[in-house]
Amino acid sequence: MGSRTEGTVCPISFVKDVLFPYALRVLPETLEAQWDNSDFAKYKDAYPPEYSTSKDELAAHTRDLMDKDVKIAYLKSLQGYLWKEGYAAGHLKAPLFPDVADKLHTWHQNGFKIMIYSSGSVPAQKLLFKHTNADPSDLSPIISDWFDTVNAGLKTEAKSYQTIAESHPEVPVGEWLFLSDNAKEVDAAIAAGMQSMVVQRPGNPELPHGGKRERTFKPTFEDGWMDKSNMEDTK
Ligand SMILES: CSCCC(=O)C(=O)COP(=O)(O)O
C-alpha cells in the first residue's frame, strides 16, 4: 500500500499555505545562522553552483522554486531541514483528513504494509507523519518504508514504481495499491503493474476529464476508504 501526501492524506493547502510560507519565513535567519556550518553544507552544496555562492542568490532561487512548486530534490531536502524546528516546537502539525489515521491503523493491524511515496524528501515525510493532528500524533511507527524522488525517481515515471516494488520483493507488484490525487502518477503506477486509484479530496483541483476516468475514488469520511460504492467507474 503506497500513498502520496498533499491532496491524498492531508489538504494541499497545508503544504501551500502553511509549510511553504513557514520555510520561506525562516529561510533568511537560517541562512544567516547556518551558512558556514558544516552540517548545513549538504543542503547548500546540493544547489547548482550559480545559486549557492551567496545567501541572497540561494534565497531568491528557493523563493522562485517554491512559487512555481518545482519538486526538485535539492529544494525538497532544504525544506525538510527548514520545517524540522517548526514541527519540534509545535508550530507545524499535519492536518490529516478525518479518515486517514483510523484507516492506516486498521490496515496496519490487518497486516498490510503502509509505505509513503512523496515528492517531499524522506526526512520531510517522516516529520509530517510524526507530527499529525491524530491521537496519537505519531503515525511513523506504522509506516514500513519511505520513498522520494532521490531513492525512487520521479513520480510520473513507471520505472520509479518498479524500483519501489523491487525494493520489497516480498510483495508481488500486483498486490501493491498506490493512492494519489494525481492522475499521471496513478497511470505510471498502473504501467508498472501496481493497482492504483485517483483519490479525490476537498480542495483538490479538478481532475482531467472532469474526474471521469476509470478507478477514481472519492472517499467519504462516513463510509470509509474502501467502500466500493464511492468509486466512480465511468468506463
Ligand atoms: C511530505 S513533505 C511535504 C509535502 C511536499 O513538500 C510535497 O512536495 C508533496 O508532494 P506529494 O508528492 O506528496 O504530493
UniProtKB/TrEMBL annotation:
InterPro entries: Enolase-ppase_E1, HAD-like_sf, HAD_sf. This is Enolase-phosphatase E1. Keywords: Amino-acid biosynthesis, Cytoplasm, Hydrolase, Magnesium, Metal-binding, Methionine biosynthesis, Nucleus. GO terms for molecular function: acireductone synthase activity; magnesium ion binding. Gene3D superfamilies: 1.10.720.60, HAD superfamily/HAD-like (3.40.50.1000). CDD domains: HAD_EP. The keyword Metal-binding applies. One of its GO terms (biological process) is L-methionine salvage from methylthioadenosine. The keyword Membrane does not apply.
